[in-house]
Specification:
This protein has 122 residues and is an alpha+beta fold. Helices cover 17% and strands 51% of the residues. The protein is elongated, with a radius of gyration of 15 Å.
């Protein structure tokens, strides 16, 4: 039997990302943990802007505002975005809707996106 979780519990998890996710990374693949970011990071944006938590289709979500001025530090093809605290913890990894070629020394952009936690199902 599945548990029923209140919005406050789901919001607590999302607020950890919102409060501590100080660095957004674009990556060439999905890092498995914080240490793995170094091998796949192509660029970053400090202090991304979050809104929420809020209702989602089935659960709760936070929204990460569009990025217009991310710094590209390596040339490659970005396929994932990762959010960390910038020192020792990876909070979230998500595939991009489309890959993006980036060149070291340039800037990168991302459209607004969400991180969702679905309601548990039976």
């Amino acid at each position: 039997m599945a548990a029923t979780l209140s919005d406050a519990v789901l919001d607590g998890a999302l607020n950890v990302i919102k409060t501590n996710g100080d660095l957004l990374h674009i990556c060439s693949s999905a890092p498995a943990d914080y240490a793995g970011i170094a091998a796949v990071a192509l660029g970053s944006k400090a202090t991304p802007s979050y809104t929420g938590p809020a209702n989602d289709t089935s659960g709760r979500k936070i929204t990460i505002a569009a990025i217009t001025d991310g710094t590209v530090s390596a040339t490659g093809t970005a396929s994932h975005v990762a959010i960390s605290n910038g020192s020792d913890t990876l909070y979230a990894v998500q595939a991009l809707n489309a890959t993006q070629g980036v060149t070291s020394g340039n800037t990168f952009t991302l459209t607004e996106f969400t991180i969702s936690i679905p309601d548990p199902t039976a």
